[in-house]
Specification:
Bound molecules: flavin-adenine dinucleotide
Strand content of chain B: 5-15%
Number of domains of chain B: 3
Strand order of the largest sheet of chain B: 2-3-7-6
Oligomer: heterodimer
Number of helices of chain A: 11
CATH architecture of the largest domain in chain A: Up-down Bundle
Number of helices of chain B: 12
Order of helices and strands of chain B: HHHHHEEEEEEEHHEEHHHHH
Strand content of chain A: 15-25%
CATH topology of the largest domain in chain B: Butyryl-CoA Dehydrogenase, subunit A, domain 3
Radius of gyration of chain B: 22 Å
Distance between the termini of chain A: 26 Å
CATH class of the largest domain in chain A: Mainly Alpha
Structural class of chain A: alpha+beta
Shape of chain B: globular
Helix content of chain B: 40-55%
CATH superfamily of the largest domain in chain B: Butyryl-CoA Dehydrogenase, subunit A, domain 3
Strand order of the largest sheet of chain A: 1-4-5-8
Number of strands of chain A: 10
CATH superfamily of the largest domain in chain A: Butyryl-CoA Dehydrogenase, subunit A, domain 3
Helix content of chain A: 40-55%
Radius of gyration of chain A: 21 Å
Number of domains of chain A: 3
CATH architecture of the largest domain in chain B: Up-down Bundle
Amino acid sequence: MDFNFTEEQDMVRDGLSRMVREQYDWESRRKAIESDAGWNPEVWAQLAELGILGMPFSEKDGGFGGGAIDSMVIMEEFGKGLVIEPFVPTVVCAGGFLKHAGSDAQKEEHLSAIIAGKRVFAFAYAEPQGRYDYADLATTAKKDGDAYTLNGHKAVVIGAPWASHLVVTARTSGGERDRDGVSVFIVDKGADGVVTRDYETVDGRRASEVYFENVSVPADALIGEEGKALPLIELVTDEAIAAQCAEACGAMKVAHTMTVEYSRQRKQFGVPIGQFQVLQHRMVDMYTAYEQSVSLTYLATLKLDAGEAERKRAVSAAKVGVGQAARLMGQEAVQIHGGNGVTDEYAIGHYFKRLTIFDHEFGNVDHHMKRHVKLG
Amino acid sequence: MNLEFTPEEIAFRDEVRTFIEENHPKHLGDFGMREDMSPEDMVAWHKVLGEKGWSVPAWPEQYGGTGWTPTQRYIWSEENARANTFMPLPFGVSMVGPVIYTFGNEEQKAQHLPGIRSGETWWCQGYSEPGAGSDLASLKTTAVRDGDHYVINGQKTWTTLAQHADWGFFLCRTDPDAAKPQEGISFILLDMKTPGVEVKPIKLLDGGYEVNETWLTDVRVPAENLVGEENKGWTYAKFLLAHERSGIAGVARSKRGVEKLREIAGSEMLYGEPLMDDFDFARKVSQLEIDLAALEITELRTLAGEQAGKGPGPESSILKIKGTEVQQRLTELTLEAVGSYGTPYYGNITGEAGVGADQRARIAGGNATNQYPIGPDYAQHSAATYFNMRKTSIYGGSNEIQRNIITKMILGL
Ligand SMILES: Cc1cc2nc3c(=O)[nH]c(=O)nc-3n(C[C@H](O)[C@H](O)[C@H](O)COP(=O)(O)OP(=O)(O)OC[C@H]3O[C@@H](n4cnc5c(N)ncnc54)[C@H](O)[C@@H]3O)c2cc1C
C-alpha cells in the first residue's frame, strides 16, 4: 500500500502547476478561446518541450517511461486551470491505441510526432444514434483490395479542428450493435472525402461534425486486428475516463477553494456569508464529495492494468462518483456565488460548465451505473 | 373538494385557446424565448393582449384587470404555456403596476398605468446593488432632495433588460440617519433617458446579455416621481416582492417543458431503444412529474386561499423554492436527454438582437461547403438554458433567503 508519488511525478506536477499559473492565466485562456484557432498552439509546443506529451509512453516507444499515474497527475493540473488543450484525444486516446495495438511502423510514424508535439489527434467514435455504445456504429469501412473505404458521420469530435489526424471507429462487418466487427483506423484529416464542420463547445473547446464520404485509407491504417477492436476501445476509453476524472478533481478543487474564499470575502447582513451555517455545511459536503472523488480516481487509475472486469468496475465506479460530485460542486459553487456565479466574468461559471460537460463524455452517470450493476 | 373544471370554466378555456390560436403573432412560433428575439418580439404578444384588454388579468378591474377568478387566471397561464407564448415581462405588469395603483397618486396612475397595460412602456427594476443583494436593505444609492428634484447617485446591478427600458423603479436611500436601514429608503420612478443614467450590459455564463450594471451619476428626477411617502419605500418593495413570488412557480411552463422532454427522450436512442424506454431515465422524468404535480396543487391551494381573501403569505416561498427546483431539474434532464449534442455552443439564448447572430457566425469553421446541421433542433440551447436557469434559485430572493423566511414566519424559529 503506497499513496506516495515518485519524485519525478512531484516534479512534473510542480512544473505544470507553475506553467498553468504563470502562462495559462485567465486572460490568456480567454484570448486563446476567442481567437480564430480557438487554442494556443504555443502552449502545446511548450508541453512537448516539458516532456508532458511523452510522459505516459515507454522509453522504447520514445517516451519517458511513465503511465496512467503520470496522466492522472498531469490531468489534475490541467483541470485546475481549465486547460483546453487536447491531451486526452491525442496522448491518452490516439497514444493509447498505438501503444496497446499499434504496429512498429505505426508507432514509428505517429508516436514520436505526438511526443514531439508535432501531430495532434482527435478521437472520432461517437455517432448521433450511438450515444454511449461504442459498438453502435453506422460508420462503415469496406475492404477494397489493398484499402478500406470509410463512410459515415461522427458527432461532436472534440479537438478535431486542431487535429491533423483522426482515430476513427468503424464497422467492418456485422450488424449495427454487434460486439464483433468493430475496427479502428488512423485517418489523415486532409484525405479526400473527409468533410468537417467546426464549432465551439460550451466549455471553451472546439469540436467538429466529421463526415466520411468514400474516404479511402490504406490497409495499414488499421490499428490492431480487423473486427476485433471493441475490447481495445473499451480499454482506451477507460484510460481516458480515468484521466478525465483526474481533470474533474482538479477543477473541483479549484471551484471549492474559490467558493470558500468567496464566502469569506462576500458580506451580507453585516457578516461574511461564510458565517451562515447552512452555507458552511454545504461547503463541507462539497469538500467531502471532492475527497471521495480523488479516492475513486486513484482506484480507477490503479486498476487500469487489472483484469478486464475489475478494471471496468473500478472505472465505472469512478465515473459515477466523480460525475455526481462534479454536478454537486458546480451547482453549489454557482449558487453560493449568487448573481456573480452566473456571469461570464467570474471564473466559477466556467468551472461549472466544464464540470457539467464532463458527465456527457465517455458515458454518463446512468450508463456507468448500469455497467457497474452488470459486472455484479 | 374537486379538481374538475366547471362547464363555464371549460367554455372559458376554449375561448382563450381560440383567441391565442388566432392572435398570437405567427412569426414568434412556439419557441418561448429565442436567441434571435428582438425587443419588439418580446413585447409583441403584450401589445396584442393590451388591445384585447387581457394584459393585466390580476389587476383590479378599475385599473384594467379582467376580473377573472384565480381558476380562470390559472387556465390563462396554462393555455399560454401550451402555445409557448412569450408573456408580458413582469417588471411593469406584476411589479411596478400594482405598486402604482396601490400606493401611487392619481397623476402617477394616469401617467404610467396605460403604458404598462399596452406594452408601450418597458420597465426595469433597480433594486440590487453590488453590495446589496440578499441584504437589500443595505443599499447605498442615495436620492437627495434639491428643490423640486431628487438627485440620485449610486450603482445598481443585475438590472434585467435595462438596455431596452424606458422607465425604471428604483430604491434609493433618502434618510441615511434613519434608526433602521429599512426605514430610510424611497421608491422612485426614473425615466431611463435622464442624463446621468448609464447602462452597461453584463455577459452571463450562457453567453447572453440579459442583465446590466446601471450607473447613476447626478441624475435629477422630478420630486413628483416619488411613489407614496418618502422613506416608506421598503414597505412598497416588500409588497411587490410578494407579488413577484406568486407567479414564480412557473407550473404551466414546466408542464409544457416535461411534455417536450418526453418527446425528445422518445426520439433519442440509447442502446438501440428510445431513451424514454430506459427505466433509469424514465424514473427521473416521473420524479419530476411527481414534484410538479404536488407543486401544481400547492399553487392551486394558494390561489384558492387568495380567492377567499388571504393575500399571498410566506407560503409563496414554497412556490418559489419548488418552482425553481423543478425548472432547473427540467433543463438538466433535457440537457441529459440530448446527449453529446448538448456540448456544441449554438450562440446565446438571451442576446440583444444581433449579438446572438454574431456569435452563431463563429460556428463556421471546417471545410464543409454545405451547411450540415449540428445535431437536432431540440438540442440547440439545451446547455445554455440549463446554465441560464441557475439564476432562478438566486434571484427573486434566493432559495436560501426563502428558507429563512419560512423558518421565521412559519416555523416561528
Ligand atoms: C439573472 C438575474 C437577474 C436579476 N434581475 C434583477 C433585476 O431586474 N433587478 C434587481 O434589482 N435585481 C435583479 N437580480 C438580483 C438578484 O435579486 C440578486 O442576485 C439576489 O438578491 C442575490 O443577491 P447576490 O447576487 O448579491 O447574492 P448574495 O446576497 O451575495 O448571496 C450569495 C449567496 O449567499 C446566500 N445567502 C445570503 N444571505 C444568506 C443568509 N442570510 N442565509 C443563508 N444564505 C445566505 C445566498 O442565498 C447566495 O447563495 C437579478 C439577478 C440575476 C442573477
